[in-house]
Backbone:
C-alpha cells in the first residue's frame, strides 16, 4: 500500500491524544488513533493490525485529514434522513397545540387522516419529543415521576 505522509503539530498531537482517550464517540477515537499511528510512521498494514479497521477506512481518515485538517476527525459523511413531517411541522404543531393527542397512535392517525402520511409509532414519538409537544399520557407520566421523585430521598 502507498504510504501517505502527514506531519502533525505538537498541538494537534495533544488534541488527538486527548480525543483518543476521552471522546465518547468511537469513530472520533479511531480517527485520532489512526492519525497518531500514521504520524509515528506506521504503514497502513501495521495500522490495520493495531486497530482492526479496514484499509479503505484508514485511507479515508488520512485523506480527510490531508484535505480538511484536524477538524476532519469530527466530520461525518452521514447527512441523516429528512422527516416526512418536516414540510407540515408548523401545521401539525398548531393542531396539536389546540388539541394535544392522548397517545402516539392517536397522533399517527390524525396525521394520516389530515396529510396522508403513514408514519411509525417510534417516529411520531421522536417527532413529538423533538418539538416539545408530549402527548397527554406522556404529560401525566412526567407529572407522576416528578411527584414521586419529590417524595423519596436518600439519607
Residues:
Amino acid at each position: 500500500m502507498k504510504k501517505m505522509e502527514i506531519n502533525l503539530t505538537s498541538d494537534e498531537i495533544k488534541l488527538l491524544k486527548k480525543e483518543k482517550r476521552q471522546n465518547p464517540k468511537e469513530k472520533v477515537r479511531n480517527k485520532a488513533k489512526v492519525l497518531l499511528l500514521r504520524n509515528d510512521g506506521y504503514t497502513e498494514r501495521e495500522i490495520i493490525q493495531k486497530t482492526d479497521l479496514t484499509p479503505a477506512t484508514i485511507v479515508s481518515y488520512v485523506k480527510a485529514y490531508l484535505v480538511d485538517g484536524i477538524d476532519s476527525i469530527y466530520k461525518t459523511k452521514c447527512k441523516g434522513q429528512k422527516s416526512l413531517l418536516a414540510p407540515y411541522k408548523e401545521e401539525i404543531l398548531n393542531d396539536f397545540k389546540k388539541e394535544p393527542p392522548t397517545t402516539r397512535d392517536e397522533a399517527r392517525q390524525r396525521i394520516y387522516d389530515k396529510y396522508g402520511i403513514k408514519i411509525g409509532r417510534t417516529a411520531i414519538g421522536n417527532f413529538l419529543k423533538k418539538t416539545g409537544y408530549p402527548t397527554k399520557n406522556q404529560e401525566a407520566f412526567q407529572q407522576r415521576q416528578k411527584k414521586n421523585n419529590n417524595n423519596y430521598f436518600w439519607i
